[in-house]
């Protein structure tokens, strides 16, 4: 029965990809989970640890409640999180070609306590309800079953769509992903302060299975087409690199695109999202089944 409900939820998710937006962004769940092991010697961000700090993030204001899912080295766990308000915390990023500020709404840092030391394989907001989500309209979805992510969720990918990238960056240089300003990093690994919200992780039956040969795969661009250069700028000789957000549905088709790193020329910015439609994509896979996914790409507009 759970699989049937999940299939319906994913259908709703495709609708959300196509219609819900704020700040010209698309979401696939009412919130995303950020998590890190509370600091101690001999561990990584994913553990081993008994206490993990976490925060819920979204592309717009809202209050969110739900169930967290943890696939760990000691089996599956879940933790219930009561309604929490997300507040605006714009994230600043530094890149080799500039700086950007991206609107984000973030919960206070909270904590989950496991009965034993675990290392996280995968974790996400499994089910969620949202209130006051504005144009995103998550209230209409009721309790929404979120698809599992295809892998650890990086803030920025490094997928470049260009056949002439070396002309701008130099043949021996590679494009580096932007990094978040240290002032905007949530202190998830810090020791919980007195009175911090801490929730118990409880053993669960497996929520997903990974029995196929390749249970996880990111969404990727399978054929790149150089973006069409705006006619109004052809005599300028200008070149610009623009960051584009890409939303891919569970069928591997483009659901939406938007600018996260604009240029200083409006003609490039106006042409960039439509250029995403000229590319071909392969969708993401998580626990052996197709899932929708978001990633970020670079589009180079190079002079003809």
Counting H and I runs of at least 4 residues, what is the number of helices?
3
Intertermini distance = 56 Å
Largest sheet: 10 strands, mixed
The overall number of domains is: 1
The secondary-structure class comes to mainly beta
Order of helices and strands: HEEEEEEEEEEEHEEEEEEEHEEEE
Give the mean pLDDT.
81
What percent of the residues sit in helical stretches (DSSP H or I)? 10-25%
Residues in β-strands, percent:
35-45%
Number of strands: 22
Radius of gyration: 20 Å
> What is the approximate shape?
globular
Q: Low-confidence parts lasting 5 or more residues at pLDDT below 50?
A: 1-24, 154-173
Description:
This protein has 304 residues and is mainly beta. It is globular and about 65 Å long. The protein contains 3 helices and 22 strands. Strand 17 and strand 18 (254-261) form a beta hairpin.
């Amino acid at each position: 029965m759970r699989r049937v409900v999940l299939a319906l939820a994913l259908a709703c998710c495709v609708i959300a990809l196509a219609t819900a937006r704020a700040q010209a962004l698309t979401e696939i769940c009412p919130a995303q989970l950020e998590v890190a092991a509370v600091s101690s010697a001999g561990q990584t961000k994913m553990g081993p640890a008994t206490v993990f700090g976490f925060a819920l993030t979204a592309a717009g204001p809202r209050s969110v409640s739900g169930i967290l899912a943890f696939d760990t080295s000691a089996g599956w766990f879940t933790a219930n999180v009561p309604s929490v308000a997300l507040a605006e915390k714009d994230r600043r990023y530094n890149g080799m070609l500039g700086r950007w500020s991206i609107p984000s709404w973030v919960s206070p840092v909270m904590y989950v306590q496991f009965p034993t030391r675990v290392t996280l394989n995968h974790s996400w907001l499994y089910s969620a309800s949202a209130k006051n989500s504005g144009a995103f309209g998550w209230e209409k979805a009721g309790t929404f079953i979120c698809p599992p992510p295809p892998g650890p969720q990086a803030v920025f990918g490094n997928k470049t769509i260009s056949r002439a990238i070396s002309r701008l960056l130099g043949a021996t240089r590679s494009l580096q992903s932007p990094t978040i300003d240290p002032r905007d990093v949530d202190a998830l690994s810090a020791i919980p302060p007195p009175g911090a919200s801490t929730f118990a992780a409880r053993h669960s039956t497996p929520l997903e299975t990974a029995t196929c040969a390749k249970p996880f795969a990111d969404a990727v661009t399978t054929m790149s087409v150089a973006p069409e250069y705006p006619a109004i700028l052809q005599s300028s000789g200008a070149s610009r690199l623009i960051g584009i957000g890409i939303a891919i549905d569970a069928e591997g088709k483009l659901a939406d695109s938007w600018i996260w790193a604009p240029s200083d020329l409006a003609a490039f910015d106006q042409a960039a999202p439509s250029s995403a439609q000229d590319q071909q994509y392969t969708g993401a896979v998580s626990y052996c089944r197709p899932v929708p996914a978001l990633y970020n790409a670079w589009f180079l507009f190079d002079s003809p």
